[in-house]
Amino acid sequence: MRLKSALQLSALTAAFIAPATLSAAQDMIIETVVVTAQKRVQDVQDVPISMEVLSGRKLEELNVRTFEDMAQYVPNLTIQPTPGANEIYIRGIGSGSQNFAFEQAVSLYVDGIYAGRNRQFMAPFFDIERVEVMRGPQGALLGKNTNAGAISLVSAQPTDTFKAGLDVTALLDRKGFDVSGFVSGPLTDDLSGRLAAKWVNEDGYVDNIAYDRKSSSPNDRMVRGTLKYEPRENADVTAKIEYSDSLVNGTPSISQIPAEGNDFLRGIKNAVDPFGYQEKDKTRSFNSVVTGNYGLGDNTLTSVSGYSTYNAKKFNSGSASEVSDWLTTQVEYFHQFSQELRLASPTGGTFEYIVGAYADTSKFKSHFDTMYDIGFAPPPRPSFAAGHSDMIYDQLTSTFSVFGQGQWNVTDEFEVGASLRYTSTSKDATLDYLVLQGSAVPALGPLDPTVGHPRHLGGSFREETIDPSVVLRYKFNPTSMAYFTFAKGSKAGGFVSNTRTVTPGTFAFKPESSRNLEVGVKSTFLDGHVVGTLTAFTTKFSDLQVSNYLPVTGISIGNAGSATTRGFEFSADMYPVEGLTLSFAGSYLDAKYDDFPGATCVVILPCNPNPALNNIGGTVLPIATKWSGTFSARYTTPLTDTLKGTVGVNGSFRSAYYTEADLNPNAHSPAHTKVDARVEIGNIDGDWSVALVGKNLTDVHSYNFSYNWPFDGAHRQYYLEPTRTFYIQGSLRF
């Protein structure tokens, strides 16, 4: 059996690296995908990283506007909406939203600016050049909190000729529209600019019959301006500012109680506004970045200066048909300054290098208020418990790091690379909270001895980490290569910001680290008709930062002992005939806790009444999907001398997985496949196009987040993912 598997793997590898050819008449030129994942401009097929790249054109065709939309088309990526903020997972690892002070295990970078908090860029995508999704630790070169992976967004840049565009999307089965546009071109001989704007106003896809309105309805406005100054050939400065006002009215959560008017399969809920406040999520953000490149001989000095700020307010509750008198108000403020300097050598020599330094400082403040007035008896439920809790959290963070990468081109075929990053992180935090509650609140657990008395917690720390990586790369031929990577990643420790039961002993949690071994093959063969990748990996996480929602005692924040994720990823783009593109990508993932003492009880194991003696080592990680994949087919053909037509089909698959840490069977999201389709007609030159698009054509009702809500009859809340949608999309280019 082992011999057979080895032969199969050898045959597959040989297919990837074989320099097979077709006749010259069949040969086609395939567009090169350029990325900057390693802080240099490279062909994605030359980068020794398992990654997916979505171009701006692909995002438009798929109508991908948010991170949640994007996750459907990237294997081993999950974006989970929650009552707090979105959670991002790569290869089954991410940061829970139950602690607002968590920084992401999957970091975001927007035009080179680090975003440790995903609310910094909550606005929908618009005028994007590409999105790069990098799997596995990226700590040596990218830096902070990339121990599970990183996502980099690159916005469209000013052009040296005049260009303008307008895109309009109109929903057909619901009310709503999405309008975006840009204008770009030279302003003087040395200066060019780009201005882009977007407005989204749509109904949601969940019917709230209590008020005859749609839930999870976006209303977003944003604008971005970019200037690029090029005084001479080897010098340029680009400045960008962006403002967004993102609002979502209601949530897609449904309590599966059909008898009370709640039906997940029909996308209906019967939810009354708690205390008269409609559920909503509003974020206003401002981001700016100035990037300068200056030639120093054959080297390039780059400076990236960034400022990012946001304020957010969210009203959230859990509700069935009766008035759910439980309201959480979450208010956040955030400011961040960052500066990076790096020096890069030219490429093509025997030795190449990048050296640099990075620093940032940020201030985060949250105000978390909970009001309740709930009865716990079966319906009718008299109200006999009342009170509220009020928490104010302040955190100041400072980071400094130096890094370097060297690559020795031993021969034309063989390269050895190594990177190293030293990081120093300091955090100071305080938490002030007051708990007021009635005398009969069994579902909230025992009364806190500090009820009615303010409590103050404070803490500070400074920690240092060193993240190395080593890469071996061998080119079998000019279009095929294999690589081996060892990389370490780290994520800073922190403090608990919004948990009612926090004590001085549980206020802080430890840093997290990861070690990754990865081997991969990337190849372009059959005269460019097939572009393929194959990657195998194993990653070990130590002191994994976790958060669990506990209906009785509140939220538990801390560190798991260790966890391991292993598996493989693959992709292929095929161009069999002119105008036809076939693509598929997939992944297999085995993600488990190795050791987790003091964990939340899980349904599949006996629960020790003493939490300190409870260990769930060997159980699967929540959110980890064993199999996931995407497929697409796109065919474009001339219709007349001036018109062309395009037909496209896209699909995605996910196997079953748990959405909650207790591995409750009721939180086991079933396997599902979703299919989209697009029919487009447009001008041969691309000046205009009109498309009819259907998403989730089979109307699969799925969820990727749920939690138990005991206060109104012990029901469970499910966050319904977008249901079937039809829309018309028009595009103009000048």
Structure in a nutshell:
With 734 residues, this protein is mainly beta.
Explain the overall architecture.
Mean pLDDT is 85; it is low at 1-29, 375-385 and 438-447. The termini are far apart. It is built from three helices and 44 strands. Strand 24 and strand 25 form a beta hairpin. The protein has a 22-stranded antiparallel barrel. Helices cover 4% and strands 57% of the residues. It is globular, with a radius of gyration of 26 Å. The longest helix has 16 residues, at 2-17. It has 734 residues and is mainly β.
Strand content: over 45%
Derived from helix and strand composition plus strand pairing, the structural class reads: mainly beta
The strand count comes to: 44
- The pLDDT mean sits at 85
Shape: globular
Query: Total number of helical segments?
Result: 3
Q: Whole-number radius of gyration?
A: 26 Å
Portion of residues within helices? under 10%
> Which blocks of ≥5 consecutive residues have pLDDT under 50?
1-29, 375-385, 438-447
Main pleated-sheet profile? 22 strands, antiparallel, barrel
Distance between the termini: 60 Å
